[in-house]
Amino acid sequence: MKLTNTILVTGGAGFIGSNFVLGWIEATGTPVVNLDLLTYAGNPENLASLEGDARHRLVRGDINDAELVGSLLREHRPRAIVHFAAESHVDRSIVVPDAFIRTNVHGTFTLLDQAKRFWSSLDEDDRRAFRFLHVSTDEVYGTLGPNDPAFSEATAYAPNSPYAASKAASDHLVRAYHHTFGLPVLTTNCSNNYGPFQFPEKLIPLVILNALEGKPLPVYGDGGNVRDWLYVEDHCSAIRAVLERGRPGETYNIGGCCERKNLDVVNTICDLLDEMAPPLAAKTGHGAARNSASVPRRQLITFVQDRPGHDRRYAIDASKIERELRWTPAERFESGLRRTVQWYLDHRVWTENVRSGAYLAWIEHNYGERLAR
Ligand code: NAD
Ligand code: TYD
Q: Please, which pLDDT band fits residue 297 given cuts at 50, 70 and 90?
């Protein structure tokens, strides 16, 4: 039996995965089987626009479930696996690293092993056509000094957080399955994403929502840490390019060539909200009583205790994917951030729904004892 034009996506109810699934069906019109455990970070509401669409099937399940993964592969005979499923938040990995090892390392191993079994059963043409695309992060490379060159595909791995270490381990397993067994794998290492559907535990959506509500905006350390921001749709278009034109066994760095200090990002969000949202009313000195004056949201910024082991700077050298696959980002940071702020303003119901009890418990844990400095 031959491969079909279906793809199997893991973690397609999360932030990047759901953007990818929506973009994939729009761009290609071909079917997606979406395997997602629906942890706190997975939200079927992200895929509401696909309800009743026969091209999308959401399967609630664990990538650690070898039997389930094997049976999905045999049933749907996908031409590719695009693997997003992961525990993805650095701060959580400091508190509960076990979940990161389980999903990111053992889960990726299980998926690879089932993919290898399925792939081995294919005829020669299909074995050549099949792809396993592993979505990874720039955090595997560690941290940069202010004048260091950006991370290239040749940069040595030096992961610093349990999250980064678990992703590095998964990257190595993917590499090994190519080297040892010939599985046609592709790995992408991308910088920080932002955009619609990002869970509000990450910097940008957290700051947007807190600033809307007049809550403190927690900036870790001195706010001078640098991230290289990429609009999520650009990450998705890069993954499509790698899937279609990437060379098996290769890794591709993906980035927006857009380094920003955290404090600058937070200031920009404050200014955008001052412009785009109702003004923030000033509190008088007496509890909840308010006067009619408004205050700039920058005043909500609160410097808090730093993240342990906090990487200072990430920057991606994306010249390989540009040169080999002719991919470049379409969105600039300023316009992408404006679109993102507008999206959160337009989707208050989505935000209310994701702020479940589990999320509130995390906020209490992460910020409750993080003293203001
Ligand atoms: P996310 O946390 O928003 O979503 C992860 C998804 O995986 C969720 O839907 C969750 O339910 C699912 N999941 C978790 N454990 C699972 C399991 N055991 N089995 C099946 N599904 C499971 O993450 P994201 O930000 O969308 O990141 C997606 C991928 O991209 C991750 O692999 C991450 O390492 C990588 N990445 C993220 C960024 C970023 O800025 N967010 C940057 C580069 C790379
Ligand atoms: P985050 O969105 O968690 O992504 P990552 O740690 O994967 O880069 O954080 C982005 C940057 O923002 C990082 O340097 C940590 C910082 N940060 C804060 O200053 N305050 C916060 O409340 C959060 C969540 C992050």
A: very high
Tokens of 362: 């995390």
What gap in Å lies between CA 31 and CA 60, rounded to an integer?
Answer: 17
Tell me, what amino acid is at 147? N
**The pTM of the whole model exceeds 0.90:** yes
CA 56, CA 32: separation in Å to the nearest integer? 5
Residues with CB under 6 A from ligand 1: 10-11, 13-17, 35-39, 41-42, 62-64, 84-86, 88, 103, 107, 135, 137, 167, 190, 192-193, 199
Q: Which residues are identified as catalytic?
A: 138-139, 163
The CATH topology of domain 7-198+229-259+310-332 is Rossmann fold (3.40.50)
pLDDT confidence bin for 373, thresholds 50/70/90: low
Mutate to test the pocket of ligand 1, among 10, 16, 64 (most ligand atoms within 8 A of CB): 16
Q: Which of 8, 32, 18 has the alpha carbon at shortest distance from 195?
A: 18
Displacement of CA 338 from its chain's centroid (Å): 19
Provide the token pair at 51: 């309800």
Q: Look up residue 332 and give its DSSP letter.
A: -
- Ligand of minimum distance to the alpha carbon of 137: 1
Tokens linked to 352:
């209310």
- In terms of Cβ atoms closer than 10 Å to its own Cβ (0-12, 13-18, 19+), residue 252 is buried
Q: Which residues line ligand 2 (CB under 6 A)?
A: 90, 192, 202-203, 206, 218-220, 225, 227, 262, 307
pLDDT in tens, 113-154: 999 999 999 999 999 999 999 999 999 999 999 999 999 999
Burial label for 190, CB within 10 Å (0-12, 13-18, 19+), is buried
Domain boundaries in the chain? 7-198+229-259+310-332
